[in-house]
Amino acid sequence: MSSAAFSLRYEQALQFAALAHRQQVRKGTDIPYIVHVVHVSVILLRHGFDEDVVIAGLLHDVIEDCGVSPQQLETLFGTEVARLVEAVSERKRIGGVERSWEERKTEAITHLQTGGPRVAALKAADTLHNIQSISADLALVGPAVWQRFKRGPAPTLWYYREILAAVTISLGDHPIVVELARALSDLEHQVQGYN
């Protein structure tokens, strides 16, 4: 295991993420949101990514969901961590107007296609854990799990397929892409089993 998980910088990022997400839980559950970002960082660590990418895994939702500015991340964790987190952060509103799910996801895929391998790895780990969580919840509660999301299984699977295609362009057959493809295939089979 890399020493990144034991560095002072990682510890500071973990504390920052825990405080930023302290009021949040995973959709439709009592599970503290911090569990998700820790999983994302561990996936990146397991696949051998460097400390900036691993720390970005811990912090990947703080701009989008917690009102943290890119400048604050840059000051605390460096330019590259801030760049990575900003690259995977959706703009949910423009000029105070809420954007549609489709508009946000299409923009996210476009950013992913041009973000390079480190952004692709971060998004792959995030998506991998989201897919694993949905699969586990489907096994426990069945199709009712989709009520937690803005869209049902078909648009969600479309989005995950688009992410897989984009990260494959940047990372090729990297083991994180292989793991993501397998998890997505398993989720697709689960969904088909309920139809």
Record the SSE blueprint.
Layout: H1 8-20, H2 34-46, H3 51-59, H4 62-66, H5 70-77, H6 79-87, E1 93-94, E2 97-98, H7 101-114, H8 117-141, H9 153-171, H10 175-193
Antiparallel strand pairs: 1-2
Structure, described:
The protein is mainly α. Helix content is 69%, strand content 2%. The protein contains 10 helices and 2 strands. The protein has helices spanning 8-20, 34-46, 51-59, 62-66, 70-77, 79-87, 101-114, 117-141, 153-171, 175-193, and strands at residues 93-94, 97-98. A two-stranded antiparallel ribbon has the order 1-2. Strand 1 (93-94) and strand 2 (97-98) form a beta hairpin. The model has no long low-confidence stretch (mean pLDDT 92).
Task: Describe the structure concisely.
This protein has ten helices and two strands.
The general outline is globular
- How many strands, which pairing sense, and closed or not: the largest β-sheet? 2 strands, antiparallel
Radius of gyration: 16 Å
Strand content: under 5%
Question: Pairing-aware structural class of the strands and helices?
Answer: mainly alpha
Task: Give the fraction of residues assigned to helices.
Answer: 55-70%
Biggest sheet: strands side by side, in what order?
Answer: 1-2
